[in-house]
Amino acid sequence: MKRKLILVFVLIISATLFFSCSGAGKDTAGTSDETVTKDVTMKTLDIVKERGYLIVGVNASNPGFSYLDSDGKYVGFEADMGRAVAAAVLGDPEKIQYRPLTSKERFAALQSGEIDLLIRTATHTLTRDTDLGLNFTVPYYYDGQTFMVRKDSGIKTIEDLEGASICVLTGSTSEANLSDVMASRNLTYKPVLYENTDELVAAFLAGRADAWTNDRAGFMTRLQTIIDPAVYTVLEETISKEPLAMGVRQGDDQWFDIINWSLYGLFFGDEHGITSSNVNKIRNSSKKPEELAFLGMRSDLGAKLGLSNDWAFNMISKAGNYSEIFNKNLSAASGISISRGFNQPWTDGGLLYAPPFR
Ligand SMILES: N[C@@H](CCC(=O)N[C@@H](CS)C(=O)NCC(=O)O)C(=O)O
Predict the structure, then answer these.
(1) Which atom of ligand 1 is nearest the CA belonging to 169?
(2) pLDDT of 19-39, one tens digit each?
(3) I need a surface site. Which of 43, 66, 163, 223 has the fewest CB within 10 A?
(4) For the structural domain made of 2-142+243-348, what CATH number should be given?
C-alpha cells in the first residue's frame, strides 16, 4: 500500500514536470525556509492556522497581476486576491507570505506542500485537473490567447502569420493552442521556444521573432508598462479560452471549499454593491437575508467552512470586493487599464456568478 502511494506520488510529480509550463527551473522560492510545509496529509486550514499566515505561490514579474514592486512588496490583482483569502481565513490580509514561482515550478510547489494556494495565471484544463493531483477553483479571471507583433510588420490577422517565427513559452497552454490554431488553418510557422519569460521578451524585443503569443491580459498590462505601445500591438482575434483559476491540492475538500467560497464572496460583494467602505453599514442595516447570512449576522455559514462567522465581513472590509481589487490593479486608476469583459458580475453581462449564500 505504502509503495503504491509512493508510486502514485512519483507519477504525479513526473506528470507535473511534463505538463506544467516553462521556466528555467531555478528555484527562487526559498525551500530551505523552516516554514515550508512538508506534511501534505495535514488539513491545509489547520496548517495555515497553526503557522499563522498563508503561503501563496505567485508570479514576481507580471505587471498588474502580480509583481514585486520597488519596495519589495508583492502587488497586483493576483497578489491582492491572496490577501483577500488571508483576511477570510485569518482575519488579516497581511498574514500572508508570497513565493515567487516560474511557470514550470508552480504546480510542483503546490503538490509538495511548499505553498497553500497557487494564484499564478494558471489556466484550468482537464489534463491539469486530472494528472497533477490538484484542484482548480472557479475562475477568477477569464482570459484568452492572442499575439503581439510589431506595428510596422503589417501583421493584422492570424492568416498574416503564415511562415512567421513565433515566440512561445514551452509547456504553457499557449504552446499547445498555437500549434492547434496554425494546424487547423493550414498555416506554417516556426516556433521559437523559451522556458523563461524574461529571455523570451528580450528576444522578441530584439527582433528575433515576428510574433509572440500569450494570454491577452499579460500583453495589455505589459503594453502599458514595459513594452512601447507605439511600436508593438496585439491582434484582435482571440484563439483560446484561458480561465485563470486558483490551484489547491486534491483531497482537501474543506480547503477547496474555503478558497472557492472566498472567491464567490468577492463576486457576491460586487453583485450586491457591498464594498470595504459600506460593509459595516450594510451589516448593521441590511434587510436582505442573504446579505445578513453572508456577513455573519444570520446563520453560521462561516462555521460550516471551518472559519469564523465574520469571515466574509473581514474579507470585504479589509481587502475589498472583486471590483475594488480589479479597479485598484487593472483599471485606469492604477495606471493600467484593462476592460472588464467577462470579468464582471453576471448581472452586468459578465461571467462572475456566486451560488446562494444560504
Ligand atoms: N495561462 C497560461 C499561460 C500562463 C503564462 O504564460 N503566463 C505568463 C504571464 S502572462 C507567465 O507566467 N509567464 C512566465 C513567467 O512570467 O515566468 C497557462 O496557464 O499556461
Answers:
(1) 6
(2) 443 332 323 333 334 444 556
(3) 163
(4) 3.40.190.10
